[in-house]
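Following up on my earlier thread - several people asked me to post the actual chain instead of describing it. Fair enough. Here it is, all 262 residues.
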Amino acid sequence: MILVYSTKSKASDLMGKYLIDDLGFEENGTLNGFERFSYESTDLIKTDSELTQMDFLDDRFKTDCFVFLSRHSSNKEVPCLTVHAQGNWSDTADLGGRPKTLSVSAPAKMLAVLTNMNSVNNLGVDVKYEATHHGPCLNTPSFFAEAGGTDSVEHIRAFAKIVAESVFKAMDNEFYYSKVVAGFGGGHYPIKFTAMALDNGVAFSHIMSKYNIDNTDMIEQSLTKSDIRPEEAIIEWKSIKSSQREGVIRVLNSLGMDYVKV
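Reply from S.P.:
Thanks for posting it. Predicted structure:
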């Protein structure tokens, strides 16, 4: 596993520094041009690039997973702690990655970090999945672990501490999950899917929110772009129109994928 933090973001920088100053990562020279810190078999690399623009990582590193330590941006400015996979469902790629392309996700590891966030969260803020969005586009399994929602949160070390500790606890552990699924429907913060994860150990490969649900040509990627193939699809039934449900189900049936409605 390789952890990545960026000096471009105060929150990300605080997360990286917490791993170094408090959790035992030690300076270990450079790795492919990046300043490196190491703890046992895990490397932490420092960058001054935008994390969403690091599509080149596949060509520079060999690892089982990248975890991006990141700030979280929210138009509603609600403080929270989140995890999510990367990818663009539509023809645009305004925040990195490639149009109509998902990255390979790491559902079990992502669930582990989400669960750890929930267990150590002492700040009274929500812990939740986000729907799959933005770059970088990678074939190596990867995901984002984030804190933020407001400009002030980005500068609060207590938020960075939760993300850093949650990722640290997930390093090189056995990753429990009851099943791996792909999610369809719900909002950008899919409340029902997060509850399924935290209450029942359901790990999501990718989540296509209701805002992208008409991009049914992307459904196959949500199943194949995962280091553990989903065994079924979960549809948040009432969040999407009946015609949209029919479109999703038609593709799932063609792919031989069972679905459950919630």
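The first helix runs from residue 10 to 21. That should answer part of your original question.
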